[in-house]
Each structure stands twice: as structure tokens, then as C-alpha cells.
Amino acid sequence: MAVTLFPLSPFAPSRQVLAQNAQRTVDGRVDDKAGAAIPGAIVYLKDIKTLAVKTFICGADGKFHFGQLSQNEDYELWAELNGKHSKTKHISSFASQNKFNFSLVIE
User: Residue 59 maps to which CATH number?
Assistant: First the structure.
């Protein structure tokens, strides 16, 4: 049995193009100064370009998750509860990773 090998098509997407189309995820936990999880904290994810904001209300474990985020957008991430908020974290479109994990502290 003969096997014929064909060169890759010039129209096939490269690894770089496939990586650029991958979706990003952001996970993490909201804690107080002592390191205890804060249930009910609201986490905000703001698209800097469109100003669209997604929210996530943390459960008893204080964890949050955002999925299906564009590789080509910049984001701001922060948490709030009862008028107090965490520092703002930034996610750049220039960052090469697809998975981000943040610890947000509300003082």
C-alpha cells in the first residue's frame, strides 16, 4: 500500500492564526484583607473599547469566572461590595496567554 504525502495547503490556517482566534477566560476569587472569601461580591469586567460591562456575583466560595473573551480587546476587572471596591486589574490584548487568574481584595 502506497502512502502519498501532500504539502500543507497555503490556505490552511497557521498555528498563530488559530491561537489568535482562541477565546480567553478570567477566573479568580474575591477576598477580604485577612484572606477570607467574600460571598456576594460583584465582579465587573469592562471592555475598554466598547465600554460594555459584564458582571458576576460570587457564591459562598468567593470565586468568579468570565469566559469567551476576545483576544483583541483590553479589559478592566474589579470587585465591589457595600460601597467598597478592590483595585482594578488590567488585561491587555498584547498579553499572549488565554487564561488569567486574579485575586481581588476588598478592604
Answer: 2.60.40.10
